[in-house]
Amino acid sequence: MTRYLVLKNGKFVRSRIPGRYAGNVTHRIFGRLTCASGLRLMHAENRVFFLTWEDAVAAGYRPCQKCHPERSDRYARRDGAWQLIAKTGG
Ligand SMILES: [Zn+2]
Q1: Which residue segments constitute the domains of the chain, with CATH numbers given?
Q2: Alpha carbon of 60 to ligand 1 centroid (Å)
Q3: In angstroms, rounded to a whole number, what is the distance separating the alpha carbons of residues 66 and 42?
Q4: Ligand 1 centroid distance, CA of 53 (Å)
Q5: Quick one: which of 3, 5, 54, 86 is 20 to 30 A from 25 by CA?
Q6: Does the pTM of the predicted model rise above 0.90?
Protein backbone atom coordinates (compact mmCIF):
# COMPACT_ATOMS: atom_id res chain seq x y z
CA MET A 1 0.00 0.00 0.00
CA THR A 2 1.17 3.50 -0.77
CA ARG A 3 2.78 5.34 2.09
CA TYR A 4 2.75 9.10 2.00
CA LEU A 5 5.44 11.24 3.57
CA VAL A 6 3.40 13.57 5.77
CA LEU A 7 4.60 16.42 7.95
CA LYS A 8 3.26 15.81 11.43
CA ASN A 9 4.30 17.71 14.53
CA GLY A 10 7.31 19.09 12.71
CA LYS A 11 8.57 15.72 11.42
CA PHE A 12 7.94 13.80 8.24
CA VAL A 13 6.33 10.46 8.94
CA ARG A 14 4.96 7.69 6.71
CA SER A 15 1.19 7.63 6.58
CA ARG A 16 -1.42 5.71 4.66
CA ILE A 17 -3.42 8.91 4.14
CA PRO A 18 -1.88 11.91 2.37
CA GLY A 19 -3.40 14.72 4.40
CA ARG A 20 -4.90 17.67 2.57
CA TYR A 21 -2.11 19.20 0.51
CA ALA A 22 0.65 17.84 -1.68
CA GLY A 23 3.99 19.63 -1.78
CA ASN A 24 6.92 19.59 -4.15
CA VAL A 25 10.22 19.47 -2.29
CA THR A 26 12.23 20.95 -5.15
CA HIS A 27 10.02 23.95 -5.83
CA ARG A 28 8.61 24.44 -2.33
CA ILE A 29 5.08 24.64 -3.63
CA PHE A 30 2.00 23.00 -2.18
CA GLY A 31 -1.30 22.40 -3.87
CA ARG A 32 -4.42 20.31 -3.94
CA LEU A 33 -4.12 16.55 -4.05
CA THR A 34 -5.95 16.72 -7.34
CA CYS A 35 -3.69 19.35 -8.90
CA ALA A 36 -3.05 18.28 -12.49
CA SER A 37 0.30 19.98 -12.78
CA GLY A 38 1.32 18.60 -9.41
CA LEU A 39 0.48 15.05 -10.40
CA ARG A 40 2.27 15.39 -13.71
CA LEU A 41 5.39 17.21 -12.60
CA MET A 42 6.05 15.71 -9.23
CA HIS A 43 8.17 12.63 -9.08
CA ALA A 44 7.24 10.42 -6.17
CA GLU A 45 10.48 11.11 -4.36
CA ASN A 46 9.84 14.85 -4.54
CA ARG A 47 6.37 14.68 -3.04
CA VAL A 48 5.53 15.44 0.54
CA PHE A 49 2.16 15.97 2.14
CA PHE A 50 0.69 18.30 4.71
CA LEU A 51 -2.18 17.81 7.10
CA THR A 52 -2.91 21.49 7.43
CA TRP A 53 -2.38 24.75 5.57
CA GLU A 54 -0.36 26.02 8.52
CA ASP A 55 2.00 23.04 8.33
CA ALA A 56 2.74 23.77 4.69
CA VAL A 57 3.36 27.47 5.24
CA ALA A 58 5.47 26.85 8.34
CA ALA A 59 7.64 24.47 6.32
CA GLY A 60 8.34 27.25 3.85
CA TYR A 61 5.97 26.22 1.06
CA ARG A 62 3.79 28.57 -0.95
CA PRO A 63 0.40 27.84 -2.52
CA CYS A 64 0.28 26.53 -6.09
CA GLN A 65 -0.86 29.20 -8.51
CA LYS A 66 -2.51 26.66 -10.81
CA CYS A 67 -4.92 24.90 -8.48
CA HIS A 68 -5.25 27.57 -5.77
CA PRO A 69 -5.56 25.38 -2.69
CA GLU A 70 -7.83 26.65 0.06
CA ARG A 71 -7.81 26.19 3.80
CA SER A 72 -11.25 24.60 3.68
CA ASP A 73 -10.29 21.84 1.23
CA ARG A 74 -11.49 18.35 2.17
CA TYR A 75 -10.84 15.09 0.36
CA ALA A 76 -12.33 11.63 0.12
CA ARG A 77 -11.04 8.55 -1.63
CA ARG A 78 -13.36 7.54 -4.44
CA ASP A 79 -12.81 5.08 -7.26
CA GLY A 80 -9.20 4.62 -6.23
CA ALA A 81 -8.22 8.29 -6.28
CA TRP A 82 -8.33 11.21 -3.90
CA GLN A 83 -11.01 13.67 -4.87
CA LEU A 84 -11.95 17.08 -3.61
CA ILE A 85 -15.36 16.75 -2.00
CA ALA A 86 -18.05 19.39 -1.73
CA LYS A 87 -17.68 21.98 0.96
CA THR A 88 -20.23 22.17 3.76
CA GLY A 89 -23.13 24.54 3.65
CA GLY A 90 -24.97 23.03 0.69
ZN1 LIG B 1 -1.53 23.04 -8.06
Answers
A1: 4-84 (3.40.10.10)
A2: 16
A3: 14
A4: 14
A5: 86
A6: no
